[in-house]
Design a protein that fits this description.
Elements (H helix, E strand, L loop, with lengths): L8 H4 L11 H13 L6 E3 L9 E6 L2 E22 L6 E15 L5 E7 H14 L5
Antiparallel strand pairs: 1-2, 2-3, 3-4, 4-5
């Protein structure tokens, strides 16, 4: 189901709870909502649709990727950039890392560890910030 984008900074500022198998419907809602906003968005965290669970989705090439309970375990090569967000107005300065490694559960709740670079790494960092209640 396509959900409304949450803009409540008090809610967005909360640390999200660990996701479980019971949160599979959130994954479907994130997929639908990202597709509906694909012209202006490349990633989302569950709190952006009003659900305080540790689930993110992002566009990786021509497919959407889900990460459940992602944890960035390695960061290399910091750089400064500006980002915007569907939940917030305007752009903000932020430090990101060119290379990251992430441990997460995939959509089938299988444990994964993967390295990402460049813009994909930036998207993941932005969405993981959402899970920590960090508002850029």
């Amino acid at each position: 189901m396509i959900k409304t984008i949450c803009k409540d900074e008090a809610f967005l500022g909360l640390v999200s709870e660990k996701a479980t198998n019971k949160d599979r419907e959130v994954i479907n809602d994130l997929k639908d909502t990202l597709r509906a906003n694909s012209s202006r968005c490349v990633g989302m965290a569950a709190n952006m649709i009003g659900v305080s669970k540790r689930i993110i989705i992002f566009t990786d090439g021509d497919k959407d990727r889900i990460m459940v309970n992602p944890k960035i375990t390695k960061k290399q090569l910091p750089y400064q950039t500006q980002e915007s967000c569907l939940s917030l107005e305007g752009e903000r300065d932020v430090t990101r890392y060119m290379n990251i490694t992430v441990e997460y559960l995939d959509e089938k709740f299988i444990k994964r560890r993967e390295a990402f670079t460049g813009f994909t790494a930036q998207i993941i960092q932005h969405e993981c910030d959402h899970l920590e209640g960090i508002i850029i």
